[in-house]
Amino acid sequence: MSLDDLKQAVLEANLATVRNGLVIATFGNASAIDRASGQVVIKPSGVPYDRMTADCMVVSDLDGRVLDNRMRPSSDLDTHLVLYRAFPGVGAVIHTHSTFATILAQCLCPIPPMGTTHADYFHGTIPVTRHLTPEEITSDYVRATGEVIVETFRDLDPDTIPAVLVAGHGPFVWGQTPEEAVMNATILEEVAKFAWHGMMLRPGAPQIPAALLDRHFLRKHGAGATYGQPT
Amino acid sequence: MSLDDLKQAVLEANLATVRNGLVIATFGNASAIDRASGQVVIKPSGVPYDRMTADCMVVSDLDGRVLDNRMRPSSDLDTHLVLYRAFPGVGAVIHTHSTFATILAQCLCPIPPMGTTHADYFHGTIPVTRHLTPEEITSDYVRATGEVIVETFRDLDPDTIPAVLVAGHGPFVWGQTPEEAVMNATILEEVAKFAWHGMMLRPGAPQIPAALLDRHFLRKHGAGATYGQPT
Amino acid sequence: MSLDDLKQAVLEANLATVRNGLVIATFGNASAIDRASGQVVIKPSGVPYDRMTADCMVVSDLDGRVLDNRMRPSSDLDTHLVLYRAFPGVGAVIHTHSTFATILAQCLCPIPPMGTTHADYFHGTIPVTRHLTPEEITSDYVRATGEVIVETFRDLDPDTIPAVLVAGHGPFVWGQTPEEAVMNATILEEVAKFAWHGMMLRPGAPQIPAALLDRHFLRKHGAGATYGQPT
Amino acid sequence: MSLDDLKQAVLEANLATVRNGLVIATFGNASAIDRASGQVVIKPSGVPYDRMTADCMVVSDLDGRVLDNRMRPSSDLDTHLVLYRAFPGVGAVIHTHSTFATILAQCLCPIPPMGTTHADYFHGTIPVTRHLTPEEITSDYVRATGEVIVETFRDLDPDTIPAVLVAGHGPFVWGQTPEEAVMNATILEEVAKFAWHGMMLRPGAPQIPAALLDRHFLRKHGAGATYGQPT
């Protein structure tokens, strides 16, 4: 994929988060990486969505050196970069303040697999990070946000649980492609909505059987997937 | 009705579930049966709704033998087939992950008749299935989903209670025609929304008097129906 | 106003209830009365809203004698007629199953004045009827629904509290004109939404001071009203 | 900015509150001040939004003397004027009955900083006023509403907490410009929605660390702001 195509795909991912009701104002940002060149394309900072074009997308390397000088990158760039460096299977990252995912992030409430909607996309509980320390917040805050996500996944597989709730902030979601990351962010909001309402009605928050979790996740993902049309 | 007309009706039922806000992504599927020929028409698996045409609809017989080879049928086909075989009055089946019906399915919470909106379409409590056993999940899962629905209706009438919540999954809904199944799925989501909010405010979940349940259901259904225009 | 104009106004009131999100499917109906002639114009029964024209509106007298033979009137006609006979200040009646008003009706939960939004349109608590008896339900149910509303207003003023929640059913709302009834039905749903959420957060359901209730209601209604532009 | 430009900006702010889902019916009003001349431009009273033009905007001085005679100003004008006189940094004021902000105002429930969405726009808890006394309500009610807001901010900075919930009524929000006030009103509704749901799930209402509140607010506001593009 050319750099221009990647910019277009990142633009479309950003616009899709707005269209899918995940982002208001300028909250939220999407990026993607070209693994061959190590170039990362990300939304610019604070530009209204209705004036955003593919040309506005900012290119940086994996160390955060901006490779063009037109616009300032998203203020969350360093978080994205930490994820790209730590999770080699990730091709795109999306951050939103979508309603129910943010509510649960604010409540420090992980999302257990309560139904097959969850199991179709996330192979286990979606975790919440710890809060950053005052020191982390006042020094290199944006990078520390990425690092606390990586810390949270020390014993988890980011390829099968492609989302996290950052404590007191909101969700970061990823995928192999921008389209997949958009889909994961959209489904995350849906399962967060289901989870909030389920936890309110049944504080015990019943989880689905492990066999059902496996059955649904594995029919859509991995070598044995049978869902969809043969490609 | 010709097979082409049935494909068109099934396509429209699938699109209506999206338009009525019952389905996001590719969750959900609608089918219908031609009782004369025993042919079942169902949505293909994993095809985006905006690219779906009547030609994409897959035809199978009641044993699941696909009668054309163009596309893979919905991964839930076998559940639909069990329902067509067990419930002779059913002409169309719809599965969605609509918000409140899914939340209640995840909470294993049946929907009692709390108001006349419910009574206009469902003549009693909408039940929840038991969870499938690990053995059922790991062997013939999709067929077992249909069988646990039939088991749930052992002492219930599927013609007057045309919906069920599958535990940890979501609703299956049916009707004599695709249009009726769409309407039942839409009203189910509405009464599920009412039920969730009512159970939160009044944990006792007050039900309507039996006489009111009968009055509303029977003025819209059966030989004595008086609702609507004479046909 | 000519009968044709009244039909047009009733059609528009019915369509406005759909447009304002108060009605799905064919739930809901609006009517109006010409007090000079005693003629009542009401929606037909079970006709989809997108095929409804002014010509579909049914005309009856105050005793329910249909004055034209084209279409069957709304199944709730007799409830409307009881209200027109009992409440001389009422010029239009609307029935909906709007979400939060219906939820509170199902919970037998009156709506106290918890804020100025309520006070701007309703001068006190919006009451809930008692449930009808089995005898009332099995004999002349629709008329009995009207009569239990009138009973509920024995000590209330329908001109300053233009709405009621019918137990286990949903709201009936009225006004001097179809436009006013539509507005009252829309605001009722809004204050019902506020009330449900307020009662969940603060079970004590704090009410506004009596002076604030009077101040807001009376600046919009009655001889001393100062709201809006001079007419 | 000319008076005509200010009228246009105030019109657009009023229309934006409707477009952003903050206002139904004719609830809500927006105004702005030209600090050089002391002229205030505000929405007229009770005019439907779809018939509102820039010419309808009413001009008054800071003492409430209407400088043109065409239309009656918003019934809340005197509240706006108190805020302009007391808060010299305020250039525009918006009042709405937006859903969750109003629900919390009715519950007398302040909004603590529970997440970074809040911190990006409000540098601390959004307060609730006390209820007005019967005497205040029956005498100069609208002015008293402004005065109780000013009283509530005796120890708070209106430039960094640009919103308040008026007890039993709804939010007043402000900003340096009409555009900023619209944004603040929109974000207020979002954080109120987050807060209601968070308080329901976790009655303790966890707040974010003080360092995180500072970090997010100060990267968007004040001399050290780094968010957005260089101007």
TrEMBL record, chains A, B, C, D:
A Gene Ontology biological process term: pentose catabolic process
EC number(s) stated in the UniProt entry for this protein: 5.1.3.4
Top-level taxon: Bacteria
Broad class of enzyme this protein falls into: isomerase
Cofactor(s), by name: Zn(2+)
Keywords: Carbohydrate metabolism, Isomerase, Metal-binding, Zinc
GO function term, MF aspect, one: aldehyde-lyase activity
Catalytic activity as recorded in UniProt: L-ribulose 5-phosphate = D-xylulose 5-phosphate
InterPro entries assigned to the protein according to its UniProt record, in alphabetical order: Aldolase_class_II_sugar_metab, Aldolase_II/adducin_N, Aldolase_II/adducin_N_sf
Any one GO cellular component localisation term in the record: cytosol
Domain Class II aldolase/adducin N-terminal: 8-196
PANTHER family in alphabetical order: FUCULOSE PHOSPHATE ALDOLASE, L-RIBULOSE-5-PHOSPHATE 4-EPIMERASE SGBE
Protein name: L-ribulose-5-phosphate 4-epimerase
Gene name of the encoded protein: araD
